[in-house]
Amino acid sequence: MSMQIVLRPAGTTFDDVISVARSGARVVLSDAALTAMAAARRAVEGLAAAPEPVYGVSTGFGALAVRHIDPGLRERLQRNIVRSHAAGMGPRVEREVVRALMFLRLRTIATGHTGVRPEVAATLAAVLNAGITPVVHEYGSLGCSGDLAPLAHCALTLIGEGEAEGPDGATGPAGALLAAHGIEPVALREKEGLALLNGTDGMLGMLIMACADFGRLLTAADITAALTLEALLGTDRVLAPGLHALRPHPGLAVSAGNMRRVLAGSGLTGHHQDSAPRVQDAYSVRCAPQVAGAARDTLAHARTVAERELAAAVDNPVVLDGRVESNGNFHGAPLGYVLDFLAIAAADLGSITERRTDRLLDRNRSHGLPPFLAEDAGVDSGLMIAHYTQAALVGELKRLAVPASVDSVPTSAMQEDHVSMGWSAARKLRAALDALGRVVAVELYAATRAIELRAGLAEQGLRPGPAARAVIEAARAAGVAGAGPDRRPAPDLAAAERFVRSGDLARAAESAAGPLG
Length: 517
Description:
This protein is mainly alpha-helical. The protein folds into two domains: 4-199, Fumarase/aspartase (N-terminal domain) (Fumarase C, Chain B, domain 1); 206-315 and 326-407 and 418-513, Fumarase/aspartase (Central domain) (Fumarase C, Chain A, domain 2), CATH 1.20.200.10. Helix content is 54%, strand content 6%. The protein is built from 19 helices and nine strands. The protein has helices spanning 14-23, 31-49, 74-85, 95-109, 118-129, 148-158, 174-180, 192-197, 201-231, 241-245, 250-263, 283-286, 288-310, 333-361, 384-400, 422-452, 466-477, 490-501, 504-513, and strands at residues 4-7, 26-29, 89-92, 133-134, 137-139, 163-165, 171-173, 318-320, 323-325. The protein has a three-stranded antiparallel β-sheet. Helix 4 packs antiparallel against helix 5. The longest helix is centred in the middle third of the chain and has 31 residues, at 201-231. It is elongated.
C-alpha cells in the first residue's frame, strides 16, 4: 500500500513533499482543508458579485489589471491566463520537480487563503494520485509573481489541455489522460486561474529536495575526507572535540565528529612524522571539517528558509479575514538567495575534495603511494584521467556558483520591474549537486584504492580502521574496482557515484563507526 499524505490548512513537512515527489505518495484533502477552502471561496464570490473591481477576481492581470472584466467574460479570463502563461521552452523538467510543484500549490490552496473551490483542489489531488505529470519546460519562470509558466503548464492539464505524461511514462494529450483515469477537467471561475499560477512552488520544491540531497552528500564528503586522511597517513588529532569547541560552529562539530568516528581504531593515522616528516597536514586535509562544517551551517540556514516558506500561503491576491488583499509575497528573493548560497557551498566543497584527490595521486605529496595510484606507473596511468574528470566537474561547479539572484530583467511593461530569478537558481543548484555527487565519488574511488595500496604496512601492525575496511568491502561489492592494472574506469566511476548517492557509502561506514550526522 502506498503512503498517504493528508493535507491540512497547516502542517506540511519536508518528508511529505519528498514522499509525493519521489515516492508517489497519495494525497488526501482533510475536512479542515475543505472547510477552509469553502469559506475563502464564499468571500471571493461575494466580491465577484460587487460592482467594485477586485484584482484577480474581476480585473485583468499584471499590466492589464486596469480593465474591469464583465461577469460573462470571467471564466474565459481565467482560462486565458492559464493558456497564455503556458509559454515554457526548452527541455522537460524532471518528473519529481513537477510533482513537488503541484503538491506545493495544492498545499497553498488547502490553507484557505487562495479562494479556489474545493473541487478544483480535489481535481489537482486526483491528477497527482493518478500519476499524471504535466509537461513542464526548463525556461519560463523569473521567480516572481510565482513560477508562472511552470505552474501554467500544470494548470493546463487540469482544464484538459496541453501535454502530460502518464504513469507508464508515455506522453500524450492531457485531456485523453484525464479521461482514461476518470478525471473530469475543471472549468475555472473567478480568481482560480490566477491562484493556480501565482506561487513559489517550483523554487521551494527544488530547494526542499536539494536540502535532502546536499545533506547526504555532506555526510559522504566527511567519510571520503576521513578515508583520504587515513590513506595519507595523516593525523586525526586535529579532529579533537576540544579544538572545535574553540570555534563553536555547529556544522564544524558535526563534520569533525563524523571524521573522528570514521577514523576510530585506524592504525594508519598519526604517522605524518615518520618517513617524510610533516608538522601539519595540508589544508585540504586538516581543514576538511571547517569547510564541510560551513556548508552544513549554510544548509541549516537554507532549511530554515524552506520551513518558513512551507508554512506560508503564497498567492496574490490572498483571502485574509474575508477580504481579498494584494501583496508581494510571491517574490522569490528569500528562496533565490539560499539556492545560490547552497550552490556556492557545493562548489567550495567540491573544490577541497578535488584537492585531496590530487594529493593522493601525486607521488611528491602522497607519502609513499605510487604515481596516480597506478599498478605499474608508466605502463599504467592509474587514476590520472579520473582526476581530469573530477577537475572538469569542479570547473562546472564554479560556473554554477555564479549567483542567479543578483540579476533582474524587468517585464510586463515595467509593472513587474524587479524579479528574483529564483527558478534559475534552483535549476543550477540541481546541476551543482549532481556534479558534487560525482566529485565525491571520484575521491571515494581514489581513497579506497590508496588505502588498499598501504597493505604492506599491515606487517607493521598498521591496518586501516574498521570503518575504512567496511567501506572498501561494500564498495567492491557494489562494483567499484580496487587496486590493479589499468582498466576502463568509467564503469567504476558510475558504480562509485551510485554508491555515494544511494546512501550505501554512509550505511557501510555507519556499520562500523556508528551513526553519523
